[in-house]
Write a structure and sequence with these properties.
The protein has 196 residues and is of the alpha/beta class. The protein folds into 2 domains: 80 residues, Ubiquitin-like (UB roll); 84 residues, Translation Initiation Factor IF3 (2-Layer Sandwich), CATH 3.30.110. It has 6 helices and 8 strands. A 4-stranded mixed sheet has the order 2-1-4-3. A 4-stranded mixed sheet has the order 5-6-8-7, with helices on one face.
Length: 196
């Protein structure tokens, strides 16, 4: 019987295929999920049992009270290890949590300036820029021009260059993306100084 593609999609075949692919990516096959005739069996302590039938491997795992876990499914024959699967999953979760804890995320903070910014407002914004750089975040500095300010962009750009130079000199930050105009905005990206 021939089905056209639209019929298969409307009758849920795509959904079942997607679910099947997701279920395969959940982790290693365990115990009854292993459906090969022969496996290379490794014990809990690392001792080698050699190539045995799957039935014999299951009987050995029942005797020892451990689970059969497929370690290397692409090997010929697949490598299966005798371990306590619950304990194994717990250790994997602990390792993942530890790795996530050590991971450093760098955020990009944005600070907007205007060409006619007053001295006090400029100092407040610069204080925020220095704080962000000290925390290890990147800073996207942005000067926005409105209306008639676009007619005298060069004045605002000179002021913006002076602000950027001041930040670089005082904090030791590096200019990651140099100053460029994008429409009515001038944008520069600063990265924090590398700590030794």
């Amino acid at each position: 019987m021939l089905y056209n593609y639209r019929y298969l999609l409307t009758n849920g075949w795509r959904y079942t295929i997607a679910n099947f692919q997701k279920s395969r990516d959940r982790g290693p096959r365990v115990n009854d999920q292993i459906r090969v005739s022969e496996v290379r069996l490794i014990g809990d302590g690392g001792d080698q049992y050699g190539i045995v039938s799957i039935d014999k491997a299951r009987s050995i795992s029942d005797e020892q009270g451990l689970d059969l876990v497929e370690v290397s499914p692409s090997a010929k024959p697949p490598v299966v290890k005798l371990i306590d699967y619950g304990k194994f999953k717990y250790q994997q979760q602990k390792k993942a949590a530890e790795a996530k804890k050590k991971q450093v995320t760098i955020q990009v903070k944005e600070v907007k300036f205007r060409p006619a910014i007053d001295t006090h407002d400029l100092n407040v914004k610069l204080k925020n820029v220095f704080r962000f750089l000290d925390q290890g975040d990147k800073v996207k500095m942005l000067m926005q021009f409105r209306g008639r300010e676009m007619a005298h962009k060069h004045i605002g750009l000179d002021k913006f260059k002076d602000i950027i130079n001041q930040v670089v000199e005082e904090s030791g930050a590096s200019v990651e993306a140099p100053l460029k105009m994008m429409g009515n905005r001038a944008i520069a990206m600063l990265a924090p100084a590398k700590k030794k």
